[in-house]
What we know:
The protein contains 10 helices and 20 strands. The protein is an alpha/beta fold.
Amino acid sequence: xxxxxxxxxxxxxxxxxxxxxxxxxxxxxxxxxxxxxxxxxxxxxxxxxxxxxxxxxxxxxxxxxxxxxxxxxxxxxxxxxxxxxxxxxxxxxxxxxxxxxxxxxxxxxxxxxxxxxxxxxxxxxxxxxxxxxxxxxxxxxxxxxxxxxxxxxxxxxxxxxxxxxxxxxxxxxxxxxxxxxxxxxxxxxxxxxxxxxxxxxxxxxxxxxxxxxxxxxxxxxxxxxxxxxxxxxxxxxxxxxxxxxxxxxxxxxxxxxxxxxxxxxxxxxxxxxxxxxxxxxxxxxxxxxxxxxxxxxxxxxxxxxxxxxxxxxxxxxxxxxxxxxxxxxxxxxxxxxxxxxxxxxxxxxxxxxxxxxxxxxxxxxxxxxxxxxxxxxxxxxxxxxxxxxxxxxxxxx
Length: 397
């Protein structure tokens, strides 16, 4: 193995949906980019392989992510044509359900907040309208909010489409190649050590998701990230068209979709367990049972099907539930792009803005997501966050 195996303009570590979107946008700018991915693209146990595939920008997100959400909404409508691939994208909307009057009042406030963030098409819908949108819902449902611009897509297809498009624009991929450490000289990150040898780069983008923390620590950068294993369930096929929008609920851990083949996809934040080596994850019987029961209660047609497959993927969670996207003051040559709960939905925008950031262009959309905020976190809070056991499920779309 040679001491220096490659020299590139930009090295992207991580070939998931975020890393591959970034590589695609950088390559489209005409720059030489190499992606190092420890497995093949979008395979077990990465988040891009196990994502529930919600394209629901805006719902549940922090105002700091509004610019990403808005930019992504515009892109998803034409992304399949742009990437020349069938992403199984469908704009069926997103329906957030209330099961009592208090939750209905909460939704009215939520809709107003969405309008203030610029999502003017989000509307409050009464019980009659809810059952018109989704016949067959549980009788306890009293109201909802509906976002017609939202939808769903296939995470594996989308991730591989970004990777293939990146290659068509000249990007190189080293798959089944683990990145072992970053390389630092003084206050600059200059490359990385990989299983194929050292890579020197003018700029490094760390987008390795659940594996980013260890790599960052190799150069003295301690990220307040912890790993969570999130579960996804797949049912037997139901009649096509039974469920059009993505369905979730105010007080439930659920994200429910129907796929093109009729199967229901259940997600929402039910936990599995990372293996001790953090290379894989195991499912929890209680999470599978809870996820299935919740879906059946909200949408009884699910109960007519059977569970045919369950999987989980590893995802990085940041201390404040916001991604770290951008550079760090005093550390040149490194950009972070990691820690987003809504990474799949906003991947088109993250790729574009990170590419612009690496090129030195203004990216005000990333200002509130800067990794520099890490310095403001209370060390005791960080320690408690990292040590907290994975017991509570995570509400996610």
